Amino acid sequence: MKPDDDTCWAAVRDRDRAFDGRFFYGVLSTGVYCRPSCASRTPLRRNLRFYAVAADAERDGLRPCKRCKPLARTADEATIRTVRELCRYIQQHSDQNPGLEQLSRRAHLSPSHLQRRFKAVLGVSPKDFVESCRLDALKRKLRDGRSVAAATYDAGFGSSSRVYERAAHRLGMTPRQYRAGGRGVDISWALSETPLGLLMIGASDRGLCFVQFGASESELRGQLQAEFPQAAITPMPANARDQFAQWMQALSRHLSGRQVALDLPLDLRGTAFQMKVWNYLLKIPYGALRSYSEVAQAIGAPRAVRAVASACAANRVGLVVPCHRVIRGDGGLGGYRWGLERKRSLIDLERSVRTAGA
Ligand SMILES: [Zn+2]
């Protein structure tokens, strides 16, 4: 059993060898996964995910760290490579539900060898891995707004009743609940008038998950609800007033050019790719600009320019995650979720503050 997240986090900070083999941690900003004792610099907690088995990290698209080699004790390098290639293949063909025979032909191994080695390297059987990939595909389709019936069909499941059984068991909820925004999170919100219009901030107990402009309170509340349909959303409670006031103050100082750095706690929720993009945006200095393709290059996905633009557009935490610092390669502004006029104002403001300070 994987220890709980706080225990895992403590083990990572201490590089505690006693936890090697009990879990792996993935670093979403770099795309690698490690053993707890890895000697690399300790990542920020918000970029970490903890995995019971290597298979889960592989399914999230992460690769084994070259420094701590988390799979090295499980098999020789050639076997690890074969197994990982098979993972990619399964992920791309999970809708066809590939069986052990087919996979072993691909890997040039006998079925029993494949079975044993796959499990030794990744901690789960090939069949379990295929099953998890099919559930991942189903989840993705549900999140993208496909109906339960269509998503079930696309993901290669025969009848939807079986999906319900399995998905409810594995996801801890039914596909319909998942589509409805996942398990409940408590989110509080507050509003403030700023030089760029009405601003709403929303926060969970982990940090800011929503910073957006809008025309009215009701519009903004609607947006917040749409982002987190399943969350319990309430106005800021009295005991959080000081905290919210501090955040708002920082944002309004930022918007008037009096505070350059915005180091606020964040609760970012997204796919591994979105997290990579958003984490990169956090590193673009105040007053600097990048093109969508520069961002794609920088995160190691040079051809994913469109996906980068979509991840910027899906940013829920404006200003703090500065998607306004990304523009088109030809100098055009590109898009901005809260209007191009606001994007232009932010870019101009940052440029003038930087020039004045230089
Ligand atoms: Zn490592």
UniProtKB/TrEMBL annotation:
It catalyses: a 4-O-methyl-thymidine in DNA + L-cysteinyl-[protein] = a thymidine in DNA + S-methyl-L-cysteinyl-[protein]; a 6-O-methyl-2'-deoxyguanosine in DNA + L-cysteinyl-[protein] = S-methyl-L-cysteinyl-[protein] + a 2'-deoxyguanosine in DNA. Its cofactor is Zn(2+). GO terms for biological process: DNA repair; methylation. One of its GO terms (molecular function) is zinc ion binding. Signal peptide: none annotated. Keywords: Activator, DNA damage, DNA repair, Metal-binding, Methyltransferase, Transcription, Transcription regulation, Transferase, Zinc. This is methylated-DNA--[protein]-cysteine S-methyltransferase. It comes from Sinimarinibacterium flocculans.
